[in-house]
Amino acid sequence: MKKIFSILIILIITTSASAQENTGDLKQLINASFGYFPKFKELQETVNTGEHRVKLAKSGGLPTLNAQGSYSYSYPVSEISAVSGDQVSAFKIMPNNKYSTMLNASYTLWDFGAVKASVDMKKSELESAKHNLDFYRSEVAFQVADIYYQVVYLKKAISIENSVIQFLEENKKDTEIKLKNGDALRYDVLSIQSSVDQENNNKIALKNALDKQIALLEYTTGKKIETNSSNFEFPAVTQSTAEQALESAKKNNSEFDLIRDQVKQAEAQVKLSHSKSKPSIILNAATGYTNGYTPDIDDFRYNYNAGVTLKIPIYEGGKYKEEINIAKSTLQESKYAEETLENTFLKDIREILIDIESSSSSIINSKKQAEQALEAQKLAQSRYKNGIGTYLELTNASTNVQRAELTTLQYEHQLCVGQYNLARITGLNYWQ
């Protein structure tokens, strides 16, 4: 029975990336995690911030209006002298106390696309924030699904363990009867009891792993989980070739959306960098009240002014040129990153499809082996009851059944893992 225990432990280790089941089905648990994880609130706030940044960028192309009031005292001030007969009089041409209230307006008539480039940049950043939220949803959904089906696996493994224990208990009773009749040894009874104890220990290990995975699921979803029985049922992805699956991924997987967002941001940065070296035409106007006008320089008087400013960058030490070069290099880098992502996805998809095909074929073979092992077990049990077979034959037959059933269970789990891996990589929102 040590071999059986080793098989169980290996299966647990190789598939224990997660586990789960539930108050509801998989969709309910995934959506519960979306509403529970604080990370989603953080990412949603990033989206909100992006929306405000778009509005801020748009404000760069809108008129500005501000009110201004000022007071200053100057001494001395300029004076002029006037001769009238024998007398010389001095007149101030500006007041000592200067008051001013103004309403100023400014509007950029033409900026060669600088504001538009800035708005496009912020819009692409906003889209990237939204796609990042989608990407995180996909990753969390994958983790919940992984936990969910690991719980299914562990529960089924426990069920197999229960059947083994039941089989051994039945044969223990038969052996005890034989012992009373002198047809068996005390050693046989003790050996079977030892096997029962070992299988119970295996069951405890499986139950412990199951409890930990359920606790992990509760941590992920924020809900108290009811462990109802379930099967390896997952909506299969219908793409028949790796190329078809890749096309679906390019359309639906948020990783591709994120890399395309990087390309758009780099393109917007190139345009923005170009616009910084272009002229701009700004309309300015102001109106208000101030003193200082002759002949009554202390009187508050209405005034206004308007004009146009032409700003032409001439020399900035090569700053704008280098910004353009950096933006172009970043754009090319993003395009190469998109090609790299396509190659990586195609490799992963091909591996997943191979795993799915292999698991499907292996399930058929392992089920046949399980049926044959079960028949052999029944035969060994009959022989043992009739005094023809030995305890060793019975033990080997039981081991073979357990090994075959666990192998089938492992292939079923691997097939399910392959299916939701393919769903994740092709961008299938199976939780909707």
UniProtKB/TrEMBL annotation:
Superkingdom: Bacteria
Pfam families reported in the protein's UniProt record: OEP
Residues of the signal peptide: 1-19
Database matches in InterPro entries: OMP_efflux (IPR003423), TolC-like (IPR051906)
Subcellular locations according to the entry: Cell outer membrane
Predominant localisation class: membrane
Keywords on record: Cell outer membrane, Membrane, Signal, Transmembrane, Transmembrane beta strand, Transport
Family: Belongs to the outer membrane factor (OMF) (TC 1.B.17) family.
Record's protein name: Outer membrane protein TolC
Species this chain originates from: Flavobacterium frigidimaris
